[in-house]
Design brief:
globular
Length: 553
């Protein structure tokens, strides 16, 4: 029943087997594993972050000039909402995305599988970013980047659709009180968000909970086991709302489609389709207007202001190996930064440090948090977890008595080690935005620092719930993040109040907006952030269209 990272092995099992199973389970959620059994993972994050200098290959000195009315940087939840609402307001918009477009369908082979991982899994690296996977390859514009900081690693999406491509799909709305605790400056927005913005996101993403017949099927035994044990562990069980067309899951159950949902083999994207990610919802509608151009494989290197106080973006168009094919300078009346928390923050920290944009707020690079993320492995529970663990993460539990709001969710693992049953259980909750980003001239980038004790109080509470699960359901719990803290829900860096106003306008800088998770300081009310990011973007864009359109741009 231990919560440490060096457990006594279960009867008949070696310590290596136990730790290996824990590492595989955590890695399969969609992140990295480093060291012996230490894991870090993430799926929600930045889509158009500045690439490192090493990713650039020299080309001709000529630069292509583009003049645009509005530019959106990034295609995740904030970027998708922004692009659609600009288009519906009649604004011609260029959307820049560093990643490539991934098209799926029944029995597609678009994304790599966990067991046969290849360079589609990682953003322009020559090796696997999942530790314990000893593979090298030719660098490719794969779907995930590991952004390593001091004390924390953030995993960031790189694809048209941003983190929605590889996230499990948990679409959770925080309670009013929890929202206010996480984002006190925006507490007054909650009633509006609840009235129309959250419901709009739910409708656009087509969210629903797992149907009874699917939950009752064999691949979802582990989900039912978690549901059964949760009440005895002090948790109130619930079904997780997900943006899934469940007919695809039924197709897998009947053998019509190859297993991907039903084995949780979705860490790098869902091959069968049926996932209502941003690229096939918000962005598809935006492109259908004819007013939006989505430009994949376009990496934004710098943001500057010219003498006429227009916004200038230095952009590299790259190939799938990272080689620069064209240098582009885009001048725009309005720029909407939606590159995810690390991407947007890095870009603005660079602009301030290099003097590219005068008088940027001092608060840029502050207020960053990890949403309280922690990945645990539940090893050898007493109950029957089945031979396959269906997904996405469809069941969870809340603790109504916790002094710090928290949520626990079971996420299936596509890989099992012989002789060991390992379930992945993730926890997250409310934390302060204690992280900071600082410019590094040597790499021309910004580097994250996260205090090691910043989320200690929350993690103690999450650990207690995990121990309670093992006490009620048998087996043991391993904190896979104990030696390598990570997050798949990075938030903050350009916080509301001190860096941007409640509409996302960068203070003192007309026509520059931040509408992604970078403006949320640290956490989103004991929920994963996707729904709140999108709802806040919906709310802000309604204000922008009403107040700024025709006046600012």
């Amino acid at each position: 029943m231990s919560d440490n990272s060096s457990p006594r092995p279960a009867a008949g099992l070696s310590r290596r087997q136990v730790l290996g199973a824990a590492a595989l389970g955590a890695a399969a959620l969609g992140g990295t594993v480093t060291g012996a059994g230490q894991a870090s993972a993430t799926t929600e994050a930045a889509s158009a972050a500045p690439a490192s200098a090493s990713e650039s290959t020299s080309v001709s000195a000529s630069v292509t000039e583009r003049r645009e009315r509005a530019v959106v940087v990034g295609t995740g939840f904030g970027g998708g909402v922004t692009a659609l609402r600009l288009a519906q307001a009649g604004v011609s918009t260029l959307v820049l995305e560093r990643g490539r477009r991934w098209v799926t369908g029944p029995n597609a082979t678009t994304f790599c599988r966990f067991a046969t991982m290849d360079n589609r899994s990682a953003w322009l690296t020559d090796h696997a970013i999942v530790g314990g996977v000893d593979k090298t390859w030719t660098p490719y514009t794969g779907v995930l980047e590991a952004v390593t900081g001091n004390g924390m690693t953030a995993m960031c999406g790189a694809a048209v659709g941003g983190g929605s491509i590889m996230y499990h799909g948990m679409t959770l709305q925080p309670a009013k009180a929890d929202f206010a605790t996480s984002i006190p400056l925006a507490a007054g927005l909650y009633d509006d968000l609840n009235l129309w913005a959250y419901p709009t996101v739910a409708r656009m993403l087509g969210i629903s909970t797992i149907p009874y017949d699917i939950l009752a099927s064999d691949p979802y035994k582990s989900s039912r086991l978690f549901q059964d044990v949760a009440p005895a562990a002090g948790l109130t069980p619930f079904k997780v709302p997900l943006p899934i067309d469940w007919s695809y899951v039924r197709g897998e159950l009947t053998g019509r489609y190859e297993a991907t949902y039903t084995t949780s083999d979705i860490a790098f994207g869902v091959n069968n389709g049926g996932k209502h990610s941003v690229d096939v919802t918000y962005l598809a509608q935006a492109e259908s207007t004819g007013l939006v151009e989505v430009a994949p494989l376009h990496v934004v290197r710098d943001l500057a202001m010219d003498a006429n106080k227009r916004w200038v973006l230095s952009v590299d168009r790259i190939d799938t190996g990272g080689a620069v094919q064209e240098r582009i300078r885009v001048t725009a009346d309005a720029v909407f930064l939606n590159a995810g928390s690390p991407g947007t923050t890095r870009l603005l920290v660079k602009s301030r440090a290099k003097g590219l944009v005068p008088d940027l707020p001092d608060a840029i690079g502050t207020g960053w948090g990890n949403n309280g993320d922690r990945i645990w492995a539940w090893i050898n529970p007493t109950g029957d977890a089945g031979t396959a663990q269906g997904g996405p993460a469809c069941v969870g539990g809340s603790d109504p008595t916790s002094s710090i709001p928290l949520t626990v969710v079971h996420a299936g693992s596509p890989i099992q080690q012989a002789g060991v049953t390992a379930l992945t259980v993730v926890g997250f909750g409310i934390v302060d935005g204690a992280g900071t980003w600082a410019y590094d001239a040597g790499t021309d980038d910004a580097v994250l620092t996260w205090p090691t004790d910043a989320d200690a109080a929350l993690q103690e509470l999450i650990a207690a719930r995990m121990r309670a699960i093992a006490a009620a359901g048998g087996g043991m719990m391993i904190d896979t993040n104990a030696g390598a803290p990570s997050t798949w829900h990075p938030l903050g860096g350009v916080p509301m109040g001190d860096a941007v106003d409640l509409t996302g306008r960068v203070l003192g800088h007309q026509g520059l907006y931040v509408l992604d998770g970078a403006r949320i300081p640290g956490s989103t009310g004991a929920c994963n952030p996707s729904m709140t990011i999108a709802a806040l973007a919906e709310h802000s864009m309604r204000t922008v269209v009403r107040q700024d359109l025709g006046r600012v741009f």
